[in-house]
Specification:
Layout lengths: L3 H5 L2 H7 L2 E7 L5 H16 L9 E6 L7 E6 L5 H4 L10 E3 L7 E9 L2 H11 L3 E9 L1 E3 L8 E4 L7 H22 L7 H8 L12 E11 L2 E9 L3 H14 L4 E11 L2 E2 L11 H27 L1
Parallel strand pairs: 5-11
Antiparallel strand pairs: 1-5, 2-3, 4-5, 6-10, 6-11, 7-8, 9-10, 11-12
Length: 307
């Protein structure tokens, strides 16, 4: 609900407060570009309903130049919204995303609004880890490794047990951890590897190499299963093909049915605004919440540096 305080505020005051990061929930089969347009339209439409700045004055000097002149001040109708258009338009509002989610992926999505675009870029360049819940179904292969594709192969799946899944995922996680040190040119059994490990997550130098920091099965109800993945440098097709690979390694087949980003850095589903809650008061409140999270992240980073 719009608060009475918000209703009484003037548009310029609200506009000056619109600077920061917003955490929203992206539905599946909605592109990031469309979410950006929706957010811009919501903000601009509600900004234009608030009380705007007064019209500029039109100063007219009239009379005979050889005699006394009269000066009149009238409203400048060339500055009227009915003439020049709405005060706040889509091209006036720069918004950029911090993490890109694929068309079939839902979940946490961060947008930087106005000055917040710099914060969004900082989060993006920092390459924070993301956590996904990826659902799959055993026994079928599709031509695009997702549920929207055409089924091209079927196989048995009843021989696949929970412990088979857990053992393979543990081996996959260990393989990716070993690859992290290899990309850094460090022997995993060396003191250098230990020194790197205690400093925090090791990020590959190449931003195009996906790395899994953690992978586990959180739900197993065959033929359906759900995998929780903590990773970096991932993309939608990679996660889809990962489910396909799991099916093959378990001597069966599988395809992906859903992908949900449940965490990006310290931003979780609890911080994300649903599309139906994208109102100006909620957006401003969410900006304040995100600002507190970013401040805490910066504080913790400073403490680690000092130690």
């Amino acid at each position: 609900m719009l608060s009475l305080t918000m209703l009484l505020q003037e548009a310029p005051v609200v506009w000056n407060s619109l600077k920061g990061v917003v955490c929203v929930y992206k539905p599946t089969e909605v592109s990031v570009l469309k979410m950006r347009r929706i957010l811009i339209n919501k903000i601009c439409n509600e900004m234009n309903t608030l009380k705007g700045r007064p019209l500029s004055d039109f100063v007219a000097i009239e009379g005979d130049p050889s005699k006394k002149l009269t000066v009149s001040v009238n409203p400048n109708y060339a500055d009227h919204p009915l003439v020049v258009g709405s005060r706040y338009q889509q091209q006036d509002l720069p918004i950029s995303w911090s993490n890109y989610l694929g068309f079939h992926t839902s979940g946490v999505l961060l947008f930087g609004v106005r000055w917040g675009t710099k914060q969004a870029k900082y989060i993006r360049d920092n390459r924070s880890t993301r956590t996904y819940k990826v659902k799959g179904v055993l026994g079928q292969v599709t031509d695009n490794c997702f549920r929207t594709g055409k089924v091209v192969m079927r196989s048995t799946w009843k021989h696949v047990k929970r412990d088979h899944m857990d053992r393979f995922l543990s081996a996959m996680q260990a393989s990716h951890q070993k690859k992290m040190f290899q990309t850094c040119g460090v022997d995993i059994q060396s003191q250098t590897a230990y020194d790197l490990a205690i400093q925090g997550l090791i990020r590959p130098a190449d931003k195009k190499i996906p790395v899994l920091y953690g992978i586990k099965c959180v739900e197993f109800n065959p033929p359906e299963f759900t995998i929780e993945i903590q990773c970096i440098n991932e993309y939608e097709d990679y996660l889809m093909h990962l489910i396909h690979e799991i099916g093959q390694k378990l001597h069966s087949t599988a395809h992906c049915t859903a992908i949900q980003c449940i965490r990006h850095s310290r931003f979780t589903l609890d911080h994300a605004l649903l599309m139906k809650h994208l109102t100006l008061p909620n957006i401003l409140d969410n900006m304040k919440l995100c600002s507190n999270i970013l401040d805490q992240m910066a504080s913790d980073r400073t403490k680690v540096t000092l130690v």
